[in-house]
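From the methods appendix. Each design record in this collection lists the tokenized structure first, followed by the designed amino acid sequence. Records were kept in a plain field format so they could be parsed without special tools. The example shown here is representative of the layout used throughout.

RECORD:
FOLD TOKENS (292 positions):
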């Protein structure tokens, strides 16, 4: 069977695989350095590589103070999410982060109601809420007693806070976007995010001996930057022009499935059967949005 590589559904499946892989790669990278420095490296390289694409194709002008304020506000939600992802992976598993990631559409929908005055149907909100419950079920490892004791993993709570922030990214970008092309907005968001992180982690950055880092680290950072950041941006931008927003968003719910597949391929321990209902909720949510 011949694959149509320009098919937006194929590309969104590729997007889901790339994002799923980033949780496993991030789990390895956190052993090398502080989460803030790691996030800085990701944003710095992303800004450089994305700038190579944007500057020759668009009229990029120095932003005004009001524009900078917009970009700094948008980037704040991004940098906290990526910091939270790396920090959370010190204490929790890639599967837990992938499942928790599925609550982002719910958070975005709620933010959209207040920031953009968008309307969300009861059925759609119910499906989003069911996906969130699936995430909670995996976080508590399928144990109601653990839920009753509020015995959550520290990493799960950190990443949940990160998801609260990244859920704000899409509606905030829409709210603050003016006339500039979206790639230009994204570039300045990454640059201002780099500045945020430079201000926060300046001393820690200076203490890192980058020459002592091995090939595995640089390969991991390259994957996170090129595939999980830049490539996914272009995939979502292209697919959003071909598909309804609900269909693009629905692929997020397949992330836990691909994380489990990757775990099996690399020989990692598979999750307990008790968490299957949580994963199933993610799959059902995906097919609901695809059908609707």
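DESIGN:
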């Amino acid at each position: 069977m011949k694959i149509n590589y320009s098919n937006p559904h194929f590309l969104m499946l590729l997007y889901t695989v790339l994002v799923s892989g980033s949780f496993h790669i991030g789990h390895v990278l956190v052993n090398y350095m502080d989460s803030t420095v790691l996030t800085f490296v990701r944003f710095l390289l992303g800004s450089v590589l994305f700038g190579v694409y944007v500057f020759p194709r668009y009229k990029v002008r120095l932003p005004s103070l009001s524009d900078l304020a917009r970009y700094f506000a948008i980037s704040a939600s991004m940098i906290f999410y990526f910091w939270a992802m790396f920090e959370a992976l010190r204490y929790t598993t890639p599967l837990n982060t992938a499942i928790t990631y599925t609550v982002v559409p719910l958070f975005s929908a709620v933010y959209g109601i207040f920031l953009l005055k968008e309307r969300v149907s009861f059925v759609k909100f119910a499906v989003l809420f069911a996906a969130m419950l699936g995430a909670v079920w995996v976080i508590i490892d399928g144990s109601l007693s653990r839920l009753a004791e509020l015995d959550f993993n520290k990493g799960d709570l950190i990443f949940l806070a990160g998801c609260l922030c990244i859920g704000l990214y899409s509606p905030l970008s829409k709210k603050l976007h003016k006339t500039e092309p979206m790639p230009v907005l994204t570039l300045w968001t990454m640059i201002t995010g780099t500045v945020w992180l430079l201000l926060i982690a300046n001393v820690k950055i200076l203490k890192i001996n980058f020459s002592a880092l091995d090939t595995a680290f640089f390969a991991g950072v390259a994957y996170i930057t090129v595939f999980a950041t830049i490539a996914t941006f272009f995939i979502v931008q292209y697919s959003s022009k071909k598909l309804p927003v609900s269909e693009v968003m629905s692929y997020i719910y397949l992330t836990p499935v691909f994380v489990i597949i990757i775990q099996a391929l690399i020989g990692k321990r598979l999750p307990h059967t008790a968490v299957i209902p949580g994963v199933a909720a993610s799959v059902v949510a995906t097919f609901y949005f695809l059908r609707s």
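APPENDIX NOTE: The two ends are 27 Å apart (CA to CA).
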